[in-house]
Amino acid sequence: MELRQNSPWPDLFRQAKRSAFHLEVRDTYAVPSESEPLRRFLAGEPRLNDDEFWDSWGSLVRETTDRGVTVSRVRVVTVPLTDYQRWLLSETGDNVAAGEDIRYLPRHRAGDVPQDDFWLFDDEVVGFNLVDAGGNPAGGAVTTDPGIASHCQRVKERVWSLATPFADFRP
After folding, report:
1. CA nearest neighbour of 79 among 107, 114, 113
2. For 19, phi and psi rounded to 5 degrees?
C-alpha cells in the first residue's frame, strides 16, 4: 500500500481506462472547502456559484467521462439524513450533470459495508480516502493488491444492485 499525503485522485482518474467507482460510507465529512457552502445551506441562504473545488471536480469528471471512462458512486446514508447529507443531496445534481452516475443506499438496507470510503479504478486499483481524527482529508492510500481489489469489486457490485439512482432517491 502506498500512502500519498496529497490528493492522489486526479492522477488516478487520468490513468483510469474503463471505470472509477466511489463508495462513500460516512454521514459527515470535514472538508474545509465545504464549510461555507454547508453553512449557507443550513442558514437557508442562496447557493453561490463560485466554488473552485466543485468546478475543478466537475472538470475532472467531464475529462474522464469524455475519454469513455464511467464514473459512478454509491453513498451509503443514514435515514433520516444528517444535515451534511441533506446539503450534499442538494449539490449532487452538479456531479450528475458532469457525468457521474450517483446512487444512494440507506444504511439499514446496506448490510455489511466497509468502514472506510474507497475509489476503485478499473476494478484493479483501490484508493482509500484517509481522514484525520477530526474527519479532515488526510490524503490517500493506494494499492493494487488483487485480494483487496477483488473484495472492493464484490462490495461495489452488491451495493450498486441495492442502491437507488439519484433522480429516484427520496429519503
Report:
1. 107
2. -155, 155
Please give the pLDDT value at position 140.
87
| pLDDT tens-place string over residues 3-27 | 776 778 899 999 999 999 999 999 9
Report whether 58 contacts 98 (CB < 8 A). yes
Q: First and final CA of the chain: distance in angstroms?
A: 37
Q: Any idea how long the chain is?
A: 171
Q: Give, for 106, the enclosing helix (H) or strand (E).
A: strand 100-106
Residue 44, phi-psi category: left (phi > 0), alpha (psi -120 to 50), beta (remainder): left
CA angle 160, 166, 169 (to 5 degrees): 95
Half-sphere exposure of 97 (CA within 13 A, CB side): 9
pTM of the model: 0.92
